[in-house]
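ASSEMBLY PREDICTION REQUEST
Request ID: AP-0331
Submitted by: J.K., bench scientist
Number of chains: four
Total residues: 588
Priority: normal
Notes: Please return the full assembly, not individual chains.
Input sequences:
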Amino acid sequence: MRDIFSQSTPIVFPKFEEKLRGALPDLPRLEAQVAQYMILNVGDLSFETGVSISEKVGVSEVTVSRLLRRLGYRGMRGLKRELRDELFDREPIQEGNEGAREVPEGMTRNMDLEYQALGEIYQQRASPLWGQIVQTIVEADRVYVTGFQAVRGMAEDCARRLGMTRGNVRFLAAHDGMLTEWLKWGDEESEKPSRCLILIDVVPYAREASILSGICSKEGHSLIVFTDEMCHWARNYTDLVIYASTRTGLILESTVAITAALNLMVNSVAGHYSTSLTERLDQWKTYTRALRLF
Amino acid sequence: MRDIFSQSTPIVFPKFEEKLRGALPDLPRLEAQVAQYMILNVGDLSFETGVSISEKVGVSEVTVSRLLRRLGYRGMRGLKRELRDELFDREPIQEGNEGAREVPEGMTRNMDLEYQALGEIYQQRASPLWGQIVQTIVEADRVYVTGFQAVRGMAEDCARRLGMTRGNVRFLAAHDGMLTEWLKWGDEESEKPSRCLILIDVVPYAREASILSGICSKEGHSLIVFTDEMCHWARNYTDLVIYASTRTGLILESTVAITAALNLMVNSVAGHYSTSLTERLDQWKTYTRALRLF
DNA sequence: GCAATTATGAAATATAAATTACATTGCGGG
DNA sequence: CCCGCAATGTAATTTATATTTCATAATTGC
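STATUS: Completed
Returned structure:
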């Protein structure tokens, strides 16, 4: 059995610890003891409960409760919420220190997370799964790309760029005739071309996403999903899922990692068509030049 | 060893994860979803409660409870206890071969360039220019966002996200009635509201970009440009230019850095409205939920 | 050393979490 | 098409957790 005042785990909550240490001298005796215990066991704290702490320290639960309120937390629940927030280093939104310009110092963590998210993408890029995904796209007769809400535009761009590397790529617009586009692209019903849907979705997930996924698996089409680390449903429909972290400490989620993943994907696919690619790009440039509608 | 799919926190529970993954294929649909969520969020798990998980995944609490029992845990409490144990007697450190990022040869250079491009964005983020840009956006009565070709979708998303942080943001669509939208937004012609255009463009630059820029400076509207390192014309019209490198060795140019810049911009603006932001976001979520058009 | 203040715990209460029992749905096999 | 089982949810119940109230003990200031 571990000692009551056991060692601390590698997990740290700097803000929380500092706050506690700062308050320590002014705290009543027993509450200080409790605080001390918390400092020594920050890493475990999320597993504890009011009583469990009070038992280990040898005080009554009320004391723990009171300490927390004195520190400005709203009870054990509140503490855990704040700790969790700190774990992801997101400022509580309502707290807003508007006057204070966000200093670059506060941004370094965000940058690290962004770097890390990018790194994870490149790792996935190196996995066999990636090869499967590229293969699937290359082999499909027709490719559809779709995305919703805050990543809809990204999906459009992705379709555009993918369309530069190979033919038969279409963006699927939600709502307006989505299924029409999906169902009758060509005129020949006879040959039944193989189809592949690339789906991009992040929290809060769109209902359309899982509906479309359902259709896909039912119809036997390939499905590739680019989503964030919170997504729990994608795996129900396909193994071809790329997870891009969106939690980087910004108020709104970050789309950088997903963008990177999509870029890499387009690039990989492009690699398969490298011979015909240059002429295709030239062709595209000619088109856009010709289209000077202004 | 950190798994590709795990989230960004360093907390890992190998045994637990393995167990879950192993069980995954044989699990009932919804329970599998819950399991999936748990795998993707191991680091958070100690903060969760039965209900909180069930809510996030969208199942009832009983399902979570049942999953746990099926896995051999004695409910949420039991799970946490075992997780805590695992956290505690996990081998000191797996320093060993962990450092080695598994990124294929040809990709490391690309990744470095991407990192570098990101770094440059964060540098600009720290410059006084950034403050000016944010200021300009915050002060403008009306904000327009536009982008062309391969970054058009990005501009749309940017407009959407910016629109979540403040009102009066519009995406300007090229070609179809662009100027109409631009010229008469409101009804009151009298007061002449201040306007700000955010323009996103990369090679090959669209003709529309400089034309619009011209209009802007002539009409006295603010102009902010996000572009790539090759852009020669933006400075002719405004000082408020953010340069994001797009040359990262991919066959098609990378849009990652621009995405990062736009994300940061939206975030900075959001910081100025932090008080009203939460309710605005809630409102937005309610809207999208209500709009279940399918 | 005596009031006034503060700290603390016991018991009661309120709130939340987890489990159980039962009802409903949906799906595959005959 | 119906049966029956497995999956899932609802509502009731039990259990745990947190908070309030109040009485008592400790401490402080004078």
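REVIEWER COMMENTS: Chain B touches chain A through 87 residues (CB under 8 Å).
SIGN-OFF: pending second reviewer
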